[in-house]
């Protein structure tokens, strides 16, 4: 009886495999004028992620597929791409959640394509650096007089959500303003500006506000909210941008 029960439980935990069509965008900007798609028939289980399917195609069908990945745990932000029309992390997206037998993967929008599914992050990193994403205070170096900056739970609550950014670029990829304005600082950088502006330990608020208070800065945001919809870490850049506007308008000073 125990053996039969164990066998029944074991069988119920096994997901029958199925085969899906993985459509991979292929493009080399140095030689191609437009991207084309290659189809691969990939066997998957209910737990198979899109990244695993791509690596399966790369291993067994075409070694030349260009894809960026690292941690496979939705922590490094390396494997951002457009999956079935929406910016997502490939390692965090299960094929079973897509409810489709065809999975189409493309490079993220609003980024220069390096090759296939890989894009360049130079613009995003430059804008991130522009808002000074580090603590600015009177203590420029650690000494024997340096002490811990104690914060209350209420003070921590003001910014901790925005500290979860992994710089995956999905928010910038989904942003319609970034499509229209190549100089727009972007939701990723603006959300990180708010993260430090809202931190009571930081003294660089005025410098950051000057950086974003310009023609291609925070006022270019049309508040479509797409950035928050695709964020895999729940950072909610759209809310950060609105709260940041409050500082510029004098409501949160």
Keywords, separated by commas or semicolons:
253 residues; alpha+beta; Ubiquitin-like (UB roll); 2 domains; elongated; disordered N terminus
Helix and strand layout, with pairings?
Elements: H1 2-12, E1 18-26, E2 36-44, H2 50-60, E3 80-83, E4 86-89, E5 102-106, E6 113-115, E7 118-119, H3 122-130, H4 153-157, H5 170-174, H6 176-180, H7 187-197, H8 205-212, H9 226-230, H10 237-248
Helix pairs in contact: 3-7, 7-8, 7-10
Summarize the structure.
With 253 residues, this protein is of the alpha+beta class. It is built from 10 helices and 7 strands.
Q: Could you explain the architecture of this structure?
A:
By secondary structure, the protein is an alpha+beta fold. The chain folds into two domains: 14-119, Ubiquitin-like (UB roll) (Roll), CATH 3.10.20.30; 122-139 and 150-248, Fumarate Reductase Iron-sulfur Protein, Chain B, domain 2, CATH 1.10.1060.10. It has ten helices and seven strands. Strands 2-1-5-3-4 form a five-stranded mixed sheet. It has a two-stranded antiparallel sheet with strand order 6-7. Helix 3 (122-130) runs parallel beside helix 7 (187-197), helix 7 packs antiparallel against helix 8 and helix 7 (187-197) packs across helix 10 (237-248). It is elongated and about 60 Å long. The chain starts with a helix and ends in a 5-residue tail after the last helix.
């Amino acid at each position: 009886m125990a053996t039969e029960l164990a066998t029944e439980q074991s069988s119920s935990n096994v997901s029958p495999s199925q085969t899906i069509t993985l459509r991979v965008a292929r493009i080399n900007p140095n030689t191609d004028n437009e991207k084309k798609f290659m189809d691969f028939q990939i066997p998957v289980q209910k737990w198979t992620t899109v990244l695993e399917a791509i690596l399966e195609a790369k291993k067994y069908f075409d070694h030349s597929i260009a894809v960026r990945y690292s941690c496979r745990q939705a922590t490094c932000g390396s494997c951002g791409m457009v999956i079935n029309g929406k910016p997502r992390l490939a390692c965090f997206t299960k094929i079973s959640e897509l409810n489709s037998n065809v999975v189409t993967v493309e490079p993220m929008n609003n980024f220069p394509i390096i090759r296939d599914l890989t894009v360049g992050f130079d613009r995003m990193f430059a804008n991130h650096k522009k808002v000074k994403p580090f603590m600015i205070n009177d203590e420029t170096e650690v000494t024997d007089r340096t002490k811990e900056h104690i914060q209350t739970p209420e003070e921590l609550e003001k910014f901790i959500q925005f500290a979860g950014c992994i710089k995956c670029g999905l928010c910038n990829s989904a942003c319609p303003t970034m499509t229209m304005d190549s100089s727009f600082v972007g939701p990723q950088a603006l959300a990180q500006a708010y993260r430090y502006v809202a931190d009571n330990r930081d003294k660089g608020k005025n410098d950051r506000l000057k950086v974003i208070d310009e023609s291609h800065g925070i006022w270019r945001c049309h508040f479509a909210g797409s950035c928050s919809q695709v964020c895999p870490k729940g950072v909610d850049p759209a809310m950060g941008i609105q709260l940041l506007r409050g500082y510029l308008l004098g409501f949160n000073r």
